[in-house]
Design goal:
The complex is a heterodimer of chains A (about 300) and B (about 140). With about 300 residues, chain A is of the alpha+beta class. Chain A contains 10 helices and 13 strands. Helix content of chain A is about 35%, strand content about 20%. In chain A, helix 1 runs antiparallel to helix 4 and helix 2 runs antiparallel to helix 5 (about 120-125). Chain A is globular. The model of chain A has no long low-confidence stretch (mean pLDDT about 90). The mean pLDDT of chain B is about 85. Chain B has one domain (about 20-135). Chain B contains 1 helix and 10 strands. The chains are: A alpha+beta (about 300), B mainly beta (about 140). Strand 13 of chain A pairs parallel with strand 2 of chain B, so a sheet runs across the interface.
Chain lengths: ~300, ~140
């Protein structure tokens, strides 16, 4: 930390001018631009800023290693450390600090608020590279992604390839409306099997798998029999719920979340005889209570 | 065919009845609200809890980021006691204290929940196959 600093009292800003308010949009756009940039990293700028942060922390200037993905970062760490089980430190977010950097830059540059000069190092990093992993004497820096694909809500999403693609053919990540999913869910949904879907324990991934497989086909192919159906709980968004049993005797409560009409398949205990009982069993509720809403 | 037709009908009704607007949670002990796989139970001011936490993500799933985040006039504490309205096999989440200005629980896949001032204990849904809480 720097030494004691004289605090200069400034007049409190009570109201923004229309120009100042309009500038907020500019800074939001700037931030999005930094965060979503797919330009190659500006390595000299990033290395200089990170070196200054090491100096401020009274640490020796680090050696820099550049990689294209977190997977490459992990492989490099294990190779260099000779420890096959080494795990990466939490990274600093680089370009993904954009929200914070755009926020304070607005206050500094538009409203004249005094911001510690050291913050500019973080702005330089934000505008020049991806994540970075700090170690004593070494830094592993990530290149920026080669491609980023998003849906209309801005979530990572692509129906026919990597939503995030790393540089230099280093692979990528598959996303379906913001949810990280296994490759075959995107690239070969026709090869998904009932067994794979039933084994998936992440409810969001399983929901997407069923969506890609075809919900009706899934229930048909698992030999599902409808045991009970009710009209839901009668609050906003409530829709009918069905209790099903598949050919492995696993029972499923099939219902919706009430806000987006997505259909969920919830594994429920075998003792459930009605949709209502099934919900009580997975929620832990002892008795029928007043429900205020479902969402 | 029956399964396909029934699911198609269910999906159609769900689309017609889905309401994507914020839900209001009143501080009424003995009731509950559900957002996806978390349950929000109003509890008394004396409801026991652990120490305060800076993590405002109410259900730490495999996905990080904007899932079940509580924001606003709110303090979040580690949960130590289930509400009396659930059985002892229920999965415990954090406990939250909402001040007079209110708070909101957001999730990218579900409607937002606006909480009145009060005390709320979070619990999680169970997955019967793994006997673990559901993670989304």
């Amino acid at each position: 930390m720097a030494g004691k600093k004289e605090v200069v009292k400034k007049e409190k800003i009570e109201k923004l001018t229309p120009e100042q308010e309009a500038k907020m949009v500019d800074y939001r756009e700037k931030g999005l631009g930094w965060g979503l940039s797919t330009e190659p990293a500006n390595r000299p700028v990033a290395e200089a800023a990170i070196a200054r942060i090491y100096t401020q922390a009274k640490m020796d200037k680090p050696e820099f290693y550049w990689v294209n993905s977190p997977h490459e970062a992990l492989a490099l760490l294990r190779k260099e450390s000779g420890d096959e089980k080494a795990t990466l430190n939490m990274p600093f977010s680089g370009q993904h600090e954009a929200g914070w950097v755009a926020w304070w830059k607005y206050f500094k540059e538009v409203l004249g608020v005094e911001i510690d000069a050291r913050a500019e190092d973080w702005a330089d990093i934000c505008q020049s590279c991806g994540w970075w992993y700090a170690y004593a004497g070494a830094v592993i820096c990530l290149e920026r992604y080669a491609e980023i694909h998003r849906d209309e809500q801005g979530r990572l999403h692509r129906e026919d390839g990597h939503a995030v693609r790393y540089r230099a053919d280093s692979g990528g990540e598959f996303f379906w409306h913001g949810q990280n999913v296994p490759a075959k869910v995107i690239m070969a949904p026709e090869t998904l099997t009932v067994e794979e879907i039933q084994k998936e324990t992440n409810s969001e991934i399983q929901r997407i798998m069923v969506e890609r497989y075809g919900p009706g086909k899934f229930m048909q192919d698992t030999g599902c029999k409808l045991l009970d159906m009710d009209g839901g709980l009668g609050v906003d968004g409530s829709a009918p719920r069905g209790l099903w049993e598949d050919n492995t005797k696993q029972k499923w409560l099939v219902g919706t979340d009430g806000s987006t009409a997505r259909v969920y398949y919830m594994a429920v205990p075998a003792e459930a005889k009605t949709a209502k009982e099934a919900h009580m069993l997975i929620s832990g509720l002892k008795s029928e209570l007043e429900v205020q809403f479902e969402a | 065919m029956q399964a396909e037709l029934t699911i198609e009908a269910l999906t159609k009704i769900a689309k017609e009845t889905a309401v994507d607007k914020p839900r209001a949670m009143k501080y009424k002990i003995g009731s509950y609200g559900r957002q996806g796989d978390i349950y929000i139970h109003p509890v008394s001011a004396e409801h026991k809890h652990g120490e305060a936490t800076k993590d405002h993500q109410l259900a730490v799933g495999e996905g990080r980021g904007s899932r079940h985040i509580v924001e606003g006039d709110v303090k979040v504490f580690l949960g130590t006691n289930l509400p009396t309205t659930v059985n002892d096999r229920t999965f415990l989440g954090p406990m939250i204290e909402v001040g007079s200005k209110g708070a909101t629980i957001t999730h990218p896949e579900h409607a937002h929940v606006k909480l009145d001032a009060g005390f709320y204990q979070i619990t999680h849904q169970m997955d019967a196959r793994t006997l673990q809480r559901v993670r989304d």
